[in-house]
Amino acid sequence: MSTAQDRARATRKSAGALRRTQLLTAAAECFDEFGYAAVTVEMIADRAQTSRPTFYAYFKSKDEVFLALVESVSRELDVTQSLTGLEDATPREILAATTRAYLDALFSLGGIVSLIDVTASVDAGVAAIWTTAADRRIRAYARYLNDLPAGTIDPAFEPERLVRVLGDALHHGAKRWANGSDAERERFIVDLIAATERLLGL
């Protein structure tokens, strides 16, 4: 195959990835604004400034684009818990950085997280993706805590159970303050970090 053909294929692949991302972004905006039931494929295509045939080139249905959105949001939340760039940080610094990153992501996602929560309660496919991702983050954080040198922390109770409790507080608290002012959100973040430090015995 010629170099020109290689470049053309790479260009098509890149353009396809961009179009898919645009459709996912448009879908997120539509679901957030109108709720799942009211959204149609036409609305998503219009918001993405494309056509129904183009939508169907990437997704089979509204259900499929919603599942893809759940996966995308899950990956976005996973990234907030990455310790990349924090290798030399103290546990206290890591706690603050990952907590803030997670909450900032939840705030930026708006009502889509609440919609996913509600949909997961009635849709097994959505629940499987959503709960698996949450469990993955919880296990990773609990593993980090368990691997700390003895005496670094003095948790109030068993780390994985503690992380689940804290995860619920972050998740549902963020939804409560999603429409709050910057100052209210910052107060929530600071208070939650302080509470977590106490529960972990830092």
Structural account:
The protein is an all-alpha fold. It folds into 2 domains: 1-59, Arc Repressor Mutant, subunit A (Orthogonal Bundle); 62-200, Tetracycline Repressor, domain 2. Helices cover 76% and strands 0% of the residues. It has 9 helices and no strands. The chain has helices spanning 3-34, 41-47, 52-58, 62-80, 91-109, 112-120, 124-146, 159-176, 182-200. Helix 1 packs across helix 2, helix 4 runs parallel beside helix 7 and helix 7 (124-146) packs across helix 8 (159-176). The radius of gyration is 20 Å and the shape is elongated. The relative contact order is 0.09. This is Helix-turn-helix domain-containing protein. Residues 40-59 bind DNA. Keywords: DNA-binding. Residues 17-77 form the HTH tetR-type domain. Pfam families: TetR_N.
If you compute it from the alpha carbons, what radius of gyration comes out, rounded to the nearest whole angstrom? 20 Å
The biggest sheet amounts to: none
Q: Provide the CATH topology of the largest domain.
A: Tetracycline Repressor, domain 2
Low confidence ranges: none
Task: Work out the helix count.
Answer: 9
Beta percentage is under 5%
Organism: Gordonia hydrophobica
Keywords: DNA-binding
Pfam family, one: TetR_N
Protein name: Helix-turn-helix domain-containing protein
SSE layout and pairings?
Elements: H1 3-34, H2 41-47, H3 52-58, H4 62-80, H5 91-109, H6 112-120, H7 124-146, H8 159-176, H9 182-200
